[in-house]
Every structure is written in structure tokens, then in C-alpha cells.
């Protein structure tokens, strides 16, 4: 069940990677 929900929440890994990179960049900018 948990695995199914995880796959549904993240349909495309590329989108998750882009969001992750944007999040990391935003955090780095805010910290500096």
C-alpha cells in the first residue's frame, strides 16, 4: 500500500529531481 501511494505522489522522477534542485538552490541562497 505504501509503495503504491509513493508511486502515485511522484508520477515522474524528472519532475521530483527538478523540484529538489530548485529547493536546494533556494535554501542555499537563503542561508548565504
Describe this structure in words.
The protein is mainly alpha-helical and 32 residues long. 84% of the residues lie in helices and 0% in strands. The protein contains two helices and no strands. The longest helix is centred in the C-terminal third of the chain and has 19 residues, at 13-31. It starts with a helix and ends with a helix.
Number of β-strand runs:
0
- Structural category is mainly alpha
Give Rg in angstroms: 13 Å
* Order of helical and strand elements: HH
Tally the helices: 2
Q: What are the key terms here?
A:
32 residues; mainly alpha; 0% strand
How do the helices and strands line up, and which of them pair or pack?
Elements: H1 2-9, H2 13-31
Quick gist of this model?
By secondary structure, the protein is mainly alpha-helical.
Amino acid at each position: 500500500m505504501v509503495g503504491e501511494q509513493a508511486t502515485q505522489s511522484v508520477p515522474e522522477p524528472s519532475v521530483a529531481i527538478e523540484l529538489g534542485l530548485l529547493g536546494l538552490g533556494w535554501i542555499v541562497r537563503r542561508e548565504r
